[in-house]
## 1
Amino acid sequence: MNSSVITFPGSNCDRDMDVALKKFGFKNKMVWHDDTELPKSDLVVLPGGFSYGDYLRCGSMASKSKIMHSVINFAKGGGKVIGICNGFQILVESGLLPGVLLRNKYLEFICKNVHVTINNKENSFFKDFDKDTVEFHIAHNEGNYFCSNEQLKEIQNNNQIALFYSDADGNIDEKNNPNGSIKNIAGIFNKEMNVLGMMPHPERMIDPALSGEDGSIFFKNLINNLK
Amino acid sequence: MIVNEQVAIDHGLKKDEYEKICELLKRTPNITELGIFSAMWNEHCSYKSSRFHLKNLPTKGKNVIQGPGENAGVIDIGDNDAIVFKIESHNHPSFIEPYQGAATGVGGIMRDVFTMGARPIANLNSIHFGSPQHKKTKNLLRGVVHGIGGYGNCMGVPTIAGQTSFDESYNGNILVNAMTLGLVKKDKIFYSKAAGLGKPVIYVGSKTGRDGIHGASMASASFDDKIEEKKPTVQVGDPFTEKLLLEACLELMSGDSIIAIQDMGAAGLTSSSIEMASKGNLGIEINLNKVPCRESKMTPYEIMLSESQERMLIVLENGKEEQAKKIFDKWNLDFAVIGKTTKSKKIELFFNEEKVADIPVDTLVENSPMYDRKWKKAKLPKKIKVKKEQFKDLKVINVLNKILSNPNVCSKEWIWQQYDHTVMGDTIQKPGGDAGVVRVHGTEKAVAASVDSSAVYCWAHPLSGGKQIVCESWRNLISVGAKPIAITNCLNFGSPENEDNMGEFVECVQGLGEASAYLNFPVVSGNVSFYNQTKEVGIKPTPAIGGVGLIQNYKNMITMDLKQSENIVLVIGKTEGHLEQSLFLREILNEKNGPPPEINLFNEKNNGETILKLIDKNFIKSAHDVSLGGILTALSKMCIKGKKGVTLKKPNYLISKFEYLFGEDQGRYIVEIEQSDYKEVAKILEKNSVHYDEIGTVNDSELIIDDKSKVSIDDLIKSHTIWLTNYMSK
């Protein structure tokens, strides 16, 4: 399996993602934002960080960088694309995913473990997850997902919601919403289910010595289902 | 502008210092030259009041690769790996403009570390605010925390530990000390010593603007009523540019084109160029028209004194300019050849084809003033007789709840949750423990770091306080299973021109030096911040110590959370019941006099080293040092973290239970061991002459002190977490 991680100026989870992908068997290449061609890839990842310093709006300038033309074409051709945190912001700014990511409700950066409940397993990202609720890690200032009522209806009808913030037992409520996201949304798919954007960082949870190991499930599942 | 004595005084120079400048130059300096002298000779850059005493600190050791005098200290952690680290203050700017002040403090210290070729792998901070009731405290705290997070998070460097305190002596002068650790290969360390003649001097990074002019001079004076007017002296940070600068510098450093490199921190282009020239015993010639400027019509004076952030000065090998420029172009950063090294041993500046400054380097550095200031020795305060009647109406559980919710003890989660502490994927002990721990990427090794200060002890008796704080740092590292290696210090004091404040400095440094020499825990870098005061009143003396230690195999790291019911809890070290200057006496009985606890360096070293032996043999299940609030406070934190309780035994001491539970005797740890290991552990402790007491056993639900006093873990958690969250949400 070949993967590509895009490095934008200001990306800072690109190395972590590289480490995680390689740990679970991907042949990963780092791709510079100014390149025009993607290497042959089964998966493209837009990593977390502060691309272009989050200036203008998070993800907005990165969505216009040279490599994104290729990423967009890759996605439109059915290629699998994941955006984590700032990568999610870039995906919504580039139009590959609906909605926007606003500042967290309490206007503070949040770095902590949260539980997320998987809403839709009929896709290559979550197909063989043996549990419905996992513990992931978030670290963001702008993860408050928002969209219009029409968009919300549409993504609900198409089953495009990937993850909800919840408690360990899968209760999805305001108490377990860390950032004010509409309907507790932590991640969404595009209509075709080949593009995933999510705020949590599975790459930070791949070792029992770290904050937890549920990220390992994500990557193991990913490589198995992309084969 | 004509330079005279008054102009010099307006620049913060003293009359005799101005006379010395004229004498050294054998003429009157022009305004640019005067600006340069004032920047180099101020307290912040010249250490003129502290050098005399700092030279006595122990700075050598078998693991020390680089001691004080470079951008940061460097220690050897084996396998060709080295850790570069330093702590630095950004107190005055943070009080004037908390977000930018704190942010640029973090940016500055990271630059110091990556200037040496190291990739930053962890940030820490020590921040001190005025009384929570003071009208400015809440906004300052919020601004500082946002600033530290804003910069560190964007850089993608985890903030793994820190310390926050509140004391009314910081009402008009908060402290913001930032520390960074970086990882470098031993054979790829970069220094600031220029070498070779006719080598190109390169400017890289952001453009130069008018921000921060005279920042270092501002940091070298006391605050008065006009501090608001000093806002323009605060620098404005751009972490995005610094992230690019970091990547570009590390990319350039992977080759062999750099001779010397120095970041432009305090006093900007002035101090960076002069330091490189001075260390290399060379001259430097700069054409100021070549310096990339953000604003038009900047004068030589402004260009030389600007403290715009995210800039570096590099002396390059001849012929490598194009290759280097390509890297900085790739990262969209300015790159300009602005001058060359010369044999003149002078700083020569040109602007519009005119020579605008011509100063021998040694007049700025070696000949800078050094003062042996007058200081007063502090007497050890008399012991206080605490009358037993004062305890009569106190209930242990009430006292414990009050202590756990005290601003200086309570959980600081509200703060560290705003710092990205997990980026880089190697944080194995996050904030809230005794020390933060990160793995050395791709290896089994891990590095532990902690930052500590005890202003109250230092205020009561500077000599004891100085010793205590080094020992506390040592204990925090031991508690996570790390072998302590070296320290960095940030010495925050009042005015050196005040004999009492200067005395506090001298004796704290003396104590600090004694402890670090005894523990073989040398000082490899540091920073002095004087004039932390408003009008005539200085802060409590607050030396902050950043300690760094090594864990050979990260799987052997220790945490403080209690692990298993039925396990035995021991206190290592002797309990005497010292209450003076304890949180209990100060906050519960409102008695603020008396001496701080004594330090016994022999016991300190012996206890710590013996615990490391027990950890090596895998006997220790959890550990925590006993500090503020004594045994019961430390134990409560272990219960909270592990969501377990402890049933305490009746103590074998003849002291009152308040002395036993809340006394702050030093050199103590609480450790958890398995029952089956008890005999073997006792044998090792006895063999090493370490005093220990069995104090209780772990249970599943409650902290039980005696028949009448017990408290559930949920209630402990509530007392510990509620204060800061409530305070910040009001």
Note: Chain A has one domain: 2-226.
## 2
Amino acid sequence: MKKVFGYPHALSEKRTHYCPGCTHGIIHRLVAEAIDELGVEEKTIGVAPVGCAVLAYEYFNVDFQEAAHGRAPAVATGIKRVHPGAVVFAYQGDGDLASIGAAEIIHAAARGEKIAVIFVNNAVYGMTGGQMAPTTLPGQKTTTSPYGRDTATVGYPIRVCELLATLDGPSYLARVSVHDPQHIIKAGQAIRKAFEMQIAGQGFALVEVLSSCPTNWGMTPVNALQWVKDKMIPYYPLGVFRSPEEVTSHDA
Amino acid sequence: MERVMMKGNEALAEGAIRAGCRFFFGYPITPQNEIPEYMARRMPEVNGVFLQAESEVSAINMIYGAGGAGARALTSSSSPGISLKQEGISYIAGAQVPCVVVNVARGGPGLGGLNPSQSDYFQATKGGGHGDYRLIVYAPGTGQEMVDLIGIAFDKAEQYRNPVMILSDAIMGQMMEPVILPEMQEIPADKAWATTGKKGRSKPNVINSLGIIGEDLEKINIELQAKYARIEAEEVRYEADGVDDADLIVVAYGTSSRVVRSAIALLREEGKKVGLFRPITLWPFPKQVLQELANKGKKFLVVEMSAGQLVEDVILAVNDRSKVEFFGKLNGTIPTVREVYEEIASLLRKGGAK
């Protein structure tokens, strides 16, 4: 009988520490599936962030380096320059990538650094207990915006894909969501595409994944997924912001 | 073996390449710019990588990535930039990744100035970043040592899987001297512990400094301290010149040791018994040797271009067995041979030494 579904080999069988209803597990699986499908487990090197995915190296069957908060794109740059034939990816959250590591991500993208970045945007600092993130929505309540994010005093959320799309460096920029099975399939395709591009020797690829945080949002897992759909997607529209086709035409 | 005339910064850069360094990441700051500029020209000739990072913070993290991936990787900067690198240095020490960091020091605090200074001694030898960790710190005193110590730095970084710092300064970096360059080495990036991709290994290699469970972190720290104890036992380097018959021993490193050497030469011509003790490793500090000299009744004078940092280590080493005097020049100025001569002569008169 043909096996149609199984545990990805690139995912370790360790039980994760993620909260019930958190979508990190789904995103980990999509990354592992892409590694399996492309047959690159033996030459993949991951860079783990500071934040909820700090233990990501425990959950993948590939070599890993832990980065300081925000510095994953710089660490990935160092690794990729030493092993240009390796598949190097960084896995980062929103505080990590869009706040403390804003310089690192912008310059890795501007350089067209040949790495893949999985950017998990759940509009909140998860690991530290629910503080306001650079992607927290206007009016959204967090522990450091207890009256709701007031744009008059703390400004506006950052749309990372749109920001990076102003640069010539990136080759692939996409925003996806994992709030329902149909979108999970599309997210998987985008992640796979980011890895494929690197194998093909093309440049910087980033996939932003809208993700839920029921614990820090104070919602049930089901309501949290609904909130991604109703609140996050309108502010962070899904789509491809830079594609290889566009890069080719840009170069021409 | 070629003998060539080179600026200290360039001698160090070429020395690094001869020692197998093929990855340089850095950011412009005076007075170290000759190093990245030299690397930008030279790396393409040896199939190496020069990359100008967006910041000191990124440069040190690129080194962490490249060193963790098994390569000999170098970054250089000057004092304010080295402050920015401290986060990364702490992570590198915690994750036990070999790499070399060069500080071509200038005066501080804050923006300070561009003149040579020795006021980063504490930062280099006492931590600098967070946590209980140590760097091996070499202080070159000649152009030749710029070449020799960078090679030794890479060897020791790999031997102990520890970051190594070269503490130079604006004079050491800018001054031209003849140097003998060693043969070219090629060092493959294939360490057993490095992130290379598994390539058939049964277990992934993981480079990290996380010990989220208290007992795990304690274990990591016990291991680190044991390593530092081995380094202290094995890696002390110093130069002792004319200390055996000396009544007074002048302790100085790097640029200030060169001024001291000239002053001592003048005093020796007058028959004064003065010696030079020059630590080459600032950590591990040659405290044992200094203690033995103190036990023999030698007196000490510490000369440095700071308000007094090295002097604290000398006092700790001597531990009240002898007197330790201090002569410092604050940031921005260099002691002249005449000033140091007068200082020593005056101490000898006070101490009744012949």
Note: DSSP finds twelve helices and 15 strands in chain B.
